[in-house]
Amino acid sequence: MGAYILRRILLMIPTLFGIMAISFAVIQFAPGGPVEQVIARLTNQGGSDRLGGGGGDAGGSNVDVASDVSSKYRGAQGLDPEFIKKLEKQFGFDKPPLERFGMMLWNYARFDFGDSYFRDISVLDLILEKMPVSISIGLWITLLSYLISIPLGIRKAVKDGSTFDVWTSGVVIVGYAIPGFLFGIMLMVLFAGGSFWDWFPLRGLTSDNWDQLSWSGKIVDYFWHMTLPLTALVLSAFATTTLLTKNSFLEEIRKQYVVTARAKGLSERKVLYGHVFRNAMLIVIAGFPGAFISAFFTGSLLIENIFSLDGLGLLGFRSVVERDYPVVFANLYIFSLLGLFVGLLSDLIYTWVDPRIDFERRDV
Q1: Could you tell me which residue ranges the ABC transmembrane type-1 domain spans (predicted)?
Q2: Radius of gyration in angstroms for the set of CA atoms belonging to the chain, rounded to a whole number
Q3: Cα separation of 271 and 253, whole Å?
Q4: pTM for the whole thing?
Q5: Domain span holding position 350
Q6: Structural contact between residues 184 and 302, judged by C-beta atoms closer than 8 angstroms
Q7: Model confidence over 112-126: pLDDT tens digits?
């Protein structure tokens, strides 16, 4: 097993390099970088009169430089070329792309993510500041979806083809088909003062008077704010896990060892939970880290934006819009690295749940 783990870890290096290289290359061709963002803010606020214009030599060299700047950056007309060069140096764009990419990889290998372009804080501190909200959402989604899905999936497998199985399958299919963000918008319209009832808050994780509440009041207030976001996210998460659980149990129930156990006179409950459960739940239990990461990083992106929850999803969205590249690449690096390790952890959980599985005898 040690050799298998070492091979997997070594394979993470080229995988992570490929992810970062492709993303970095795409960013080079994306319009509206951080320099353009600053120029847009200055021109919209009339800042060019203060920061750029006047004071240079009217000779031909300055005219050529100004024309080069104007052609390179949209909206840079009227700004001092020296000011633009200072912006490029501040954001690191005075260096060639390959040099910038190499420096980024070297710094990221030491978990040095630098500072945010537009926030007066280091990227790592910013991510740590937003992480508790996303972790809270991810934990609750994973816990609730498993608590609902596993008993429901087992019941559907036992009652396969019955009326109960048919109508619950309809609910599951509808839940799987409706995107979480669309269901979240519908919940806001219905229950957050949209057009019908005003039962739940529209945004935020806590109320404005949070610090003044008692401990019990804080718990009630927290769940009051979390009800709609969690409902929107759990719907699709529980649908996927329910179908996975049902299919896994059906596959095990039809195997020969189950027929033999029943022929020996074992009760249906003993057969189901004494023999089938461990084998059927192998794929569900091993998928727990992946389900958490999925809910943590991807599932909450749109929901955090819809309900204005100040977590990593909202941070990532705003960073992309603002072209805050250090935050964007740091999120990508951390999440990709974590995703690769979660894949390895899932394999190790397989061997822990069922020692008969040996990955060392298989090709990676």
Answers
A1: 131-346
A2: 27
A3: 9
A4: 0.71
A5: 123-361
A6: yes
A7: 888 888 888 889 888
